[in-house]
Amino acid sequence: MKNRIIGFDLARAYAIFGMFIVNFNIVFGSHEDTSILGRFLNLFNGNSSTTFVILAGMGVALMTNRAVYSLEEKQQLQAMVMKRSWFLFFTGLLLYNWWSADILHFYGGYMHLAALLLFTPKKYYLWAAALAIVIFHLLLLIIPYENGWNFDALEYTDFWTLSGFLRNTFYNGWNPIFPWVAYFLLGMWLGRLDWQNQKIKQNLLLTGVLLFLGVSLLQMTAGYFDEDPAFYITADYLPPFLPFMLSTSGFALILLVICITIGERFSNNKILLALAKTGQMTLTHYVVHLTLGMILFSLLTGKTDINSMNQGSPTPPIVVLGFAITFYLLSLFFSFQWSRKFKNGPLETLMRKISG
């Protein structure tokens, strides 16, 4: 295994751990908890899922990163990516009946659009990403963002209607194509870079720090602005305004460079190798934590409806964090044991058999 790949998988391992914390906290905890530990859990909001999508884009780019392909090979690879996009889309729709904040069906949408740009020069990935963000902000001027939402319960009321489904998928769902495909396209651009080049890593780290700290400092001054500009600057996840996207992209760049550096220096460390195996099975762990993980936590807390978010009194953040860590350690153990006999995770294997 190449060190650079270990680094990417370490980042994936972080992303899935962050999603454990975020999703368990959304259902069983409270995003309004102002305690030190409550605020710590809320730090994972946005950064985990956005990093997850960026890494997904990188994975597609790395899978098709050879210098020269024949026309037939290009068509075959595009067809494979298309098939995987449909697999994720329908898997996500199936999961949506259980978990309404599913990201997989959106992920399938990102991949489908990305397949169309797969063999274009990498600069177009950034142009397309910028266009996706612009389209989202233009849609804000046309369609009220709150359409379809019951924000008190964090429920989307008309998802299974044609207009609701299209609105949710392309504009104001949890992870809509506009603007979230921009993360996927950024990941594809990153996947085309030479990660062996130290100068590139230094520049990406500096860019990430400037973006993350720049937006953070701007948010600290939000109190000096009127209500609407302040909301635009500080909005977190819903809606995904430009400051949020710049901040989370900056965080992802910082994380990637750190993980690559750790992977290069400690490539034979057994703990890191176990983490890397977990990062290679993010699809499996994503689905398992939303099914088995949620069931186990509901039995522990007595909260039986995972889609009735913010139900009853919230579970203390120490319990949420403890359960997330425990479930993640079990996931690490499973990943390590599974990888001793199989190359890919269970759901990853199924997807490859279907898509090639």
Protein architecture, described:
The mean pLDDT is 92. This protein is 71% helix and 1% strand. Strands 1-2 form a two-stranded antiparallel ribbon. It has 15 helices and 2 strands. The chain has helices spanning 3-28, 36-42, 47-63, 71-96, 104-116, 123-142, 162-172, 177-191, 198-220, 227-234, 242-265, 270-279, 282-301, 317-339, 346-355, and strands at residues 149-150, 155-156. The protein is globular and about 55 Å long. The protein is mostly helical and 356 residues long.
Distinctive features:
two-stranded antiparallel ribbon; single chain; mainly alpha; 2 strands; 15 helices; 356 residues
List the helices and strands and how they pair.
Blueprint (H helix, E strand, L loop, with lengths): L2 H26 L7 H7 L4 H17 L7 H26 L7 H13 L6 H20 L6 E2 L4 E2 L5 H11 L4 H15 L6 H23 L6 H8 L7 H24 L4 H10 L2 H20 L15 H23 L6 H10 L1
Antiparallel strand pairs: 1-2
Helix pairs in contact: 1-3, 1-11, 1-12, 1-13, 1-14, 3-5, 3-8, 3-11, 4-5, 4-15, 5-8, 6-8, 9-11, 12-14
Characterize this entry briefly.
The protein is an all-alpha fold and about 350 residues long. It is about 70% helix and about 0% strand. The mean pLDDT is about 90.
Shape: globular
The helix count comes to: 15
In whole angstroms, the N-to-C terminal distance is 22 Å
Largest sheet: 2 strands, antiparallel
Low-pLDDT runs:
none
> How many distinct beta strands?
2
Query: Structural class, please?
Result: mainly alpha
